[in-house]
Specification:
Length: 620
């Protein structure tokens, strides 16, 4: 029967604390009796107050015990270490050695966790946090499509709207990062690590929030891999002058993912992400030089931005002469607003990294350094991508392609950009495919004997196999075998999804509107609103008592929620409501535009990745 305590902002009744049943079940308020390692992996009986108490303790520890190691300078940011020791462990050497072997056990099994001591549990969490600020900067800027989709966005929106909207999107993406950071710092701890977006949803909205976020995150990661598979297939078909069957071109990259995806931990991805961003910068500079000395790729005008807006903009006359490159200060064609919105959705890809911000913070030695890495990455993305997009639009106009490097007309230059892009995209695909299957990031120390437990439980492997079937962690031998079979299935599914969509811009538009925009602009204010209400509702004489395990609350329901909304910085809560409404409206508009675009595309027979003819081969 529901009680007043159950109807408060968090589940569980604090009046039940101390009952024997709660001690067995790991109920709310029994932290001193039911250890964190004995809780269910996602225990609804753990109150917000308990999460917040341990989070505050973890933040104080981070301030009092600075991370060991040399001072990080500019060079270490550009060339981050491949690995490092985790946050400073507590306890004696014997405790540290014992905690280092937690990884060998199946921690998804409650009976196994019963033999893990408090020190082993928290030290394992500390040691898993090894990512540096420099590594996070590179991971955020390891973009699969952002810089190469932005020229298409400018070509469909024009100079003025494109610059204004991209600037607004960039600033709000940074603000969203701050919201996620604020939430993370208030609910993450060594006792209860917050490892993913889904964990945030669970601790603030319960199981509904967790499953909803994880499902959408899994869909986006799958679509990201599909996007890369198809874009690389197009690049390879263009590099082979369309002599290799297009279906084979795409299939090659799906098979490549079978092998690259076998990397189970992401320690190596710090360097791979570093390598990928330098490749992307090289592509940017090379292609900018290429298009300055060559005309647009007229033969691919059927997949250009101009064709999506108004086919007449790229249709040759009777003599076979194509219209000159054109630009627009405002919307290129106000009568086709949907095409401009769909083009704008390509710009959202530039700021799509917010989906992984919680995972990045969970792996950092000093989570408070995340803001520096995030703002540095956002400024880099804004400045470099903006210059690249405007430069490309100036030279290519309505003939701009997505990805942009496909629009280089000189074959040798075109091939150089395509090959580099394929390498960079494969690295990004491995990153997203890894997270999509495993559901988290895992930076482990270089010494295998020091590898500690992986405490993340999100997306596919950990949410389904671990949660429901007690599958072992990926550091366990059986987990490694399961991983080897799951990766090929995951990449095969990504190939099927991507191959079925005939229009690349339409596909990326629908992914951007339904998934990327939500994680970057919709969910952060929604989560922060719940976090602020719960945190601000706690009075000075309320909260979690670690000595007794009791959670003290004097009221519940609407009264408590309204007090939490109006307390503290209430104007931030009001802004979050406005921001949330605007994000939902933009998402709805983007979905409408993407669907309308796909309807128009499907109205005529189209080429897809199940056939041998490439969409870029208009002579076929």
């Amino acid at each position: 029967m529901a009680t007043g305590g159950n109807l408060a902002l968090d589940g569980g009744d604090p009046r039940l604390a101390g009952s024997s049943d709660d001690s067995i079940l790991g109920g709310q308020g029994l932290s001193s009796y039911t250890k964190p390692q004995m809780r269910l992996l996602h225990d609804p009986r753990v109150s917000f107050e308990e999460y917040h108490y341990y989070a505050q303790r973890a933040r104080r520890e981070e301030l009092e015990q600075p991370i060991e190691g040399p001072t990080k300078g500019f060079l270490s940011t550009i060339l981050p270490s491949k690995s490092g020791k985790g946050a400073q462990a507590q306890g004696g050497d014997s405790e540290k050695r014992r905690s280092s072997h937690v990884v060998a056990a199946n921690i998804s099994d409650k009976n196994t966790r019963a033999h893990v001591t408090d020190e082993e549990w928290t030290n394992a969490s500390r040691a898993a946090r090894t990512a540096t600020m420099g590594a996070i900067f590179y991971l955020i800027t390891t973009d699969i499509l952002g810089p190469f989709a932005l020229p298409y966005a400018f070509a469909t929106t024009g100079w003025g709207p494109g610059i204004a909207l991209y600037t607004a999107f960039g600033f709000m993406a940074g603000f969203s990062g701050w919201l996620l950071y604020n939430i993370f710092m208030g609910i993450d701890s060594h006792e209860f690590p917050c490892k993913s977006y889904g964990d945030m949803g669970f601790r603030l909205y319960g199981h509904v929030g967790r499953y909803g976020l994880n499902i959408l995150q899994a869909i986006q990661l799958l679509c990201n891999v599909a996007v890369i598979t198809i874009s690389n297939g197009e690049a390879l078909s263009e590099a082979t002058k369309f002599k290799l069957c297009y279906a084979v071109c795409c299939l090659i990259w799906a098979i490549a993912g079978f092998f690259v995806g076998q990397i189970r931990t992401l320690q190596k991805f710090g360097w791979l992400a570093n390598f990928a961003i330098w490749i992307n910068l090289l592509i940017i500079f090379l292609t900018m030089g290429f298009i300055a000395h060559s005309p647009p790729l007229y033969s691919a005008s059927g997949s250009s931005a101009g064709y999506s807006i108004n086919p007449d903009l790229v249709t040759p006359d009777a003599a076979g002469n194509y219209p000159p490159v054109q630009h627009s200060a405002g919307l290129p064609d106000k009568s086709n607003f949907g095409a401009s919105v769909n083009g704008l959705m390509q710009a959202v890809y530039s700021y799509g990294g917010a989906m992984l911000f919680p995972e990045f913070m969970a792996e950092m030695k000093r989570p408070k350094d995340f803001l520096k890495a995030m703002w540095s990455a956002q400024i880099f993305i804004y400045v470099v991508y903006m210059l690249y997009g405007l430069y490309w639009y100036a030279y290519q106009g309505q003939y701009t392609q997505t990805p942009s490097y496909l629009g280089v007309s000189h074959y040798s230059w075109q091939t150089a950009g395509n090959v580099l892009a394929m390498v960079s995209a494969l690295i990004a695909a491995a990153l997203y495919g890894n997270i999509g299957v495993k559901g988290e990031l895992a930076y482990f120390p270089a010494d295998d004997d020091q590898c500690l437990a992986d405490f993340a439980f999100p997306v596919l492997y950990n949410n389904i196999l671990v949660d429901f079937f007690n599958a072992p962690p990926l550091t366990h031998r059986t987990g490694k075998i399961l991983w080897a079979f799951i990766i090929p299935a995951y990449w095969s599914l990504a190939f099927v999804v991507g191959a079925a969509i005939p229009d690349f811009a339409g596909f990326t538009g629908i992914v951007s509107a339904t998934c990327i925009l939500q994680f970057t602009y919709t969910f952060p204010p929604m989560l922060h609103l719940a976090y602020n209400i719960r945190k601000n509702a706690i009075r000075e004489d309320e909260g979690f008592d670690p000595a007794t395990g009791n959670v003290i609350r004097h009221d519940s329901g609407i009264k408590r929620a309204m007090r939490g909304f109006m307390a503290g910085k209430w104007y931030l809560n009001v802004w979050n409501v406005i921001y949330l409404g605007g994000a939902l409206a933009t998402a709805g508009l983007g979905i409408w535009a993407a669907v309308e675009n796909l309807i128009a595309i499907y109205a005529e027979p189209q080429l897809n990745a199940y056939g041998c003819t490439s969409p870029l081969d208009v002579s076929a």
